[in-house]
Write a structure and sequence with these properties.
CATH architecture: 3-Layer(aba) Sandwich
Number of helices: 8
Strand content: 15-25%
Number of strands: 9
Strand order of the largest sheet: 3-2-1-4-5-6-9
Distance between the termini: 49 Å
Order of helices and strands: EHEHEHEHEHEEEHEHH
Helix content: 25-40%
Length: 267
């Protein structure tokens, strides 16, 4: 069984907002090895580059561990995976050509390969579902889309490199006995809705930072999956009904708590 009810979990790219919420959701349930390319002491004491309302990771002490790991270096990734019961990869780099390929594509390869070499059975990989790509093959005009539709990244650097990284993990899952759960996100926001935000509308693929972090807990504890590689939309149900979220509820027992009705309902 790939289910991970306890034990040790390594998080790659933990310095970002999603990593911050993963730490909050998992710290009381697992012994964490928290990694990023920068020291966590530095990251936790600095404002988030994604804005004042984006979460910043908490600096944890023992029994948890903080470690500097460059995900593009296989030796460092392999060492970070040793002794772990599960792996979570929330690392990302969006806008620099060479580094985006190194982090999003090569990094995914390194993580999946190291997980297999260390005998880890469950990997949670993360990436974007771009709701609008600006070309005729995107899904902006469609409704009731399911998690297993093929991604159409177009020529967007972020989308292409994450798309390739997802395929890398799929190959490892199908050939090497690794169970990969790929969680796709798009828009994030805080749980708290400010008064001036009410009635202003919402992204049809939206999730609170808090729910996003909790989804990773359900990913670790979910039962054995129907296939070695499963993709999940991680978002809240929206009135547009563009993106189906029933697969996560059915296979993981997870659904978003925050529905954001105040954003689209008018008094």
């Amino acid at each position: 069984m790939a289910t991970v009810d306890g034990g040790k979990v390594v998080i790659f790219g933990a310095g970002g907002p999603l990593g911050a919420m993963a730490i909050q959701a998992l710290k009381g349930e697992y012994q964490l090895r928290i990694t990023d390319v920068r020291p966590m002491e530095e990251i936790s004491s600095s404002p988030s580059p994604q804005g004042p309302r984006a979460p910043v990771p908490e600096l944890l002490g023992a029994p948890h561990e903080n470690r500097v790991v460059d995900i593009t270096r296989y030796d460092q990734v392999l060492d970070a995976c040793r002794g772990m019961d599960a792996v979570i990869n929330v690392s990302v780099l969006r806008h620099e050509l060479s580094r985006a390929f190194s982090v999003n594509y090569v990094g995914a390869y390194n993580v999946a390969k190291a997980a297999v070499e260390c005998g880890v059975k469950r990997l949670i990989h993360t990436g974007p579902f771009h709701t609008w790509m600006g070309h005729n093959a995107d899904y902006w005009n469609d409704f009731q889309l399911g998690d297993d539709i093929p991604l159409h990244p177009g020529e967007d650097l972020y989308a292409v490199t994450k798309y390739l990284g997802g395929h890398v993990t799929r190959v490892f899952a199908e050939r090497c006995g690794l169970e990969v759960l790929t969680f796709l996100y798009c828009g994030f926001r805080p749980r708290k809705i400010e008064e001036e935000e009410k009635g202003k509308g919402m992204n049809p693929f939206l999730i609170s930072w808090e729910d996003a972090g909790e989804s990773l807990l359900y990913g670790l504890r979910g039962p054995e999956m129907p296939g070695p590689y499963e993709v999940f939309f991680i978002c809240t149900p929206s009135p547009q009904d563009k993106y189906r979220v029933d697969k996560a509820r059915k296979l993981l027992g997870w659904e978003a708590k925050d529905r954001f009705e105040e954003l689209y309902r008018r008094s």
